[in-house]
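Re: [ENG-882] Designed sequences occasionally contain unexpected residues at chain ends

Forwarding the minimal case from QA. C-alpha cells:
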C-alpha cells in the first residue's frame, strides 16, 4: 500500500466558486491513473467521512483523457466570510493525502 499523496503527481484543492471546493488528483502516467480508478478507493463515502459530509454532497468525476480525478464538495463557510480560514481553498487537500492505494 502507498498513500495517495505519494502516488499522484498532483494533489491540490482550490475554490470552485464561493460555496464549493474542488480537489484535483492528476497523473503523468496513464497506468497509475488506471490503477487508482480500478482500485476504487476514491469514493463518495470515503471523501464524506474525511470532510464530515454526507456522501450525497460529494461529486467525483474521472477524466480519462486528462488522467485526472475531480472531486467537489461544499465549503463549510463561503469564501471570504468572517469565519473563512482559507479564502482560496488552497489548503484543504491535506486529508486526501492519507487515502491508501493498494
Amino acid at each position: 500500500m502507498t498513500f495517495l499523496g505519494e502516488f499522484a503527481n498532483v494533489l491540490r484543492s482550490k475554490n470552485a466558486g464561493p460555496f464549493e471546493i474542488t480537489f484535483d488528483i492528476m497523473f503523468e502516467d496513464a497506468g497509475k491513473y488506471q490503477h487508482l480508478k480500478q482500485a476504487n478507493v476514491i469514493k463518495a463515502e470515503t471523501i464524506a467521512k474525511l470532510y464530515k459530509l454526507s456522501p450525497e454532497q460529494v461529486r467525483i468525476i474521472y477524466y480519462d483523457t486528462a488522467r485526472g480525478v475531480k472531486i467537489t464538495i461544499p465549503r463549510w463557510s463561503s469564501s471570504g466570510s468572517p469565519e473563512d480560514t482559507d479564502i482560496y481553498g488552497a489548503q484543504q487537500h491535506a486529508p486526501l493525502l492519507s487515502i491508501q492505494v493498494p
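QA comment: On inspection the terminal residues look reasonable. The chain has one domain: 2-76. Proposing we downgrade this to a documentation issue.
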